[in-house]
Specification:
The complex is a heterodimer of chains A (223) and B (225).
Chain A: H1 6-19, E1 24-26, E2 32-39, E3 46-52, E4 66-68, E5 73-75, E6 88-92, H2 94-97, E7 107-108, E8 119-123, E9 127-131, E10 142-145, E11 150-152, E12 180-181, H3 183-191, H4 209-217, E13 220-221
Parallel strand pairs in A: 6-7
Antiparallel strand pairs in A: 2-3, 2-10, 3-6, 4-5, 4-8, 8-9, 10-11, 12-13
Chain B: H1 2-18, E1 28-32, E2 38-40, E3 45-49, H2 52-56, E4 59-60, E5 65-68, E6 71-73, H3 76-82, H4 97-105, E7 108-109, E8 114-117, E9 120-122, H5 125-133, E10 134-136, H6 145-150, E11 154-157, E12 162-165, E13 168-170, H7 173-192, H8 197-205, E14 215-217, E15 220-222
Antiparallel strand pairs in B: 1-3, 4-5, 5-6, 7-8, 8-9, 10-13, 11-12, 12-13, 14-15
Helix pairs in contact in B: 3-8, 5-7, 7-8
């Protein structure tokens, strides 16, 4: 005699298995947004900062998902370690990582990952960050935020380390402040010849031939 | 009394065995964490059977498919996009004013495209609408033939006053109607996975496909903003 149908038994045990499971902490990856981007003019120094924006502690499943620009893609190699609540992620170029004051990037992206003159950045299909021509500052200091505002760059990594960088290194040979080393600077150097002025690049105590050679070695736009 | 309880339990167990109920009958899989998008605090896996899979909206790594609203989905990308489970939020750390307004009333934040039900977050309009008014059912257990037929797609049963959207039952007509709209987008997205999984994902989220550079709104391609 069969007291129970076969399907009943299947359901009974299936439900028992599910009911015996411990409470499940669900993980995901939807709530990361691109909140700040930064670039210098030639794109060698760039960062993309993401943030978990929905106060969710288990948004860890990034492995295999991508951040893309119109021309490039970066794939997250692994999942994150929780908690993720309001955390930041920093993707940046190697030249950015070498700058004084730069937080250590969580991930390195290739130079020129996005076009500073306009691009569409995406995190999977979960977030879009588009900007047009002349929207992203390339003055080496300011960045573009997700709400469209600009301000002094403020990158932050997953370890909560923040910083600010100046992507334009000093250019002491640009004596007349034009952004490049040229004839004006040469004339200024000759004007300071024999004195301990700003053109005393080698700090010998007097502007001389060695300083002239240094100026010629750095001829052209400041880098 | 204790002896009676023990004896009764023994009789029930023996009866089940004699009735031919094999514990191993359901296909039970252990689903690895890393491939399932859902983690447990105390174990590496979630157990499910092929009977509970559609009801729980789970994914089976062994079989490489999952279910949402009773619809079989073979694309992991689409399944993860749907993410048909409520997610914990830390209210004290929440900064979005729109989310903070929506959360206590079971509303939807348009700016983050997140809906809230019972203080849990849902990442698409479909999963939000399913969670808000619906209850997933085992279709084979439905006694009403109309409801069972409706569960193949969607439909409202006037006799039961229950709407089925896939295997999800709704008692509120408005919530049912909202879910039907999103369900049709899901069906289109499932069809789209054969061409491009990321397009299917973008269709669900009113987003853009990073591969094809096509933007979608309400499941339809639109000009890129």
């Amino acid at each position: 005699m069969r007291f129970f149908s076969h399907s009943f038994c299947r359901s009974f045990f299936a439900i028992a298995i599910v009911a015996s499971a411990a409470p499940i902490a669900l993980a995901g990856s939807h709530s990361w947004d691109i909140v700040e981007i930064f670039s210098n003019a030639d794109g060698s120094i760039q960062f993309i900062e993401m943030m978990e924006t929905n106060a969710m502690p288990n948004e860890i499943n990034l492995a295999g998902k991508q951040v893309t620009s119109n021309a490039n893609a970066f794939t997250f190699p692994s999942n994150l370690i929780p908690p993720t609540t309001n955390k930041h992620l920093l993707l940046a170029t190697a030249d950015f990582a070498a700058l004084p004051g730069a937080p250590t990037p969580d991930y390195i992206i290739k130079a020129g990952f996005f076009n500073p003159n306009g691009d569409t950045l995406m995190y999977h299909t979960y977030d879009i960050f588009s900007f047009g021509h002349d929207v992203l500052p390339t003055d080496c200091i300011n960045s573009l935020n997700g709400d469209g505002t600009t301000g002094v760059n403020n990158p932050e990594n997953y370890q909560d380390v923040k910083g600010t960088v100046d992507a334009c290194p000093p250019c002491p040979w640009d004596l007349d402040g034009t952004g490049s080393v040229g004839t004006g600077d040469l004339l200024e150097l000759f004007a300071q010849w024999g004195t301990a002025g700003p053109a005393d690049f080698d700090e010998s105590g007097a502007v001389g031939t060695n300083d002239l050679l240094i100026l010629f070695a750095n001829w052209g736009p400041c880098k | 009394m204790k002896q009676f309880a023990t004896t009764f339990t023994l009789i029930v167990f023996v009866s089940l065995v004699l009735a031919g109920c094999k514990v191993s009958s359901p296909t039970v899989h252990s689903v690895p964490n890393s491939q399932h998008d859902h983690t447990r605090d105390d174990a590496d896996s979630i157990l499910h059977t092929h009977e509970t899979l559609p009801v729980l909206s789970n994914w089976c790594d062994d079989c490489n498919f999952g279910y949402v609203a009773g619809q079989r989905i073979s694309s992991k990308v689409l399944f993860e996009t749907l993410d048909a489970h409520g997610h914990d939020v830390n209210i004290d750390a929440m900064t979005c004013a729109s989310c903070l307004t929506a959360l206590p009333v079971g509303g939807y934040c348009e700016s983050h495209r997140i809906g809230f039900v019972d203080s849990k977050a849902y990442f698409s309009r479909l999963t939000y609408s399913l969670a808000k008014g619906g209850e997933a059912r085992n279709v084979s257990s439905l006694t009403c033939t109309t409801c069972r037929a409706n569960a193949q797609e969607h439909g409202w049963c006037a006799a039961c006053q229950i709407g089925m959207v896939g295997n999800v039952a709704f008692k509120n007509r408005n919530e049912y109607t909202n879910a039907v709209e999103q369900f049709s987008i899901l069906k289109s997205a499932i069809d789209k996975t054969g061409d491009c999984e990321m397009c299917a994902s973008a269709m669900i989220l009113d987003s853009r496909c990073p591969l094809c550079k096509i933007s979608y709104q309400d499941g339809q391609p639109i000009a890129n903003p």
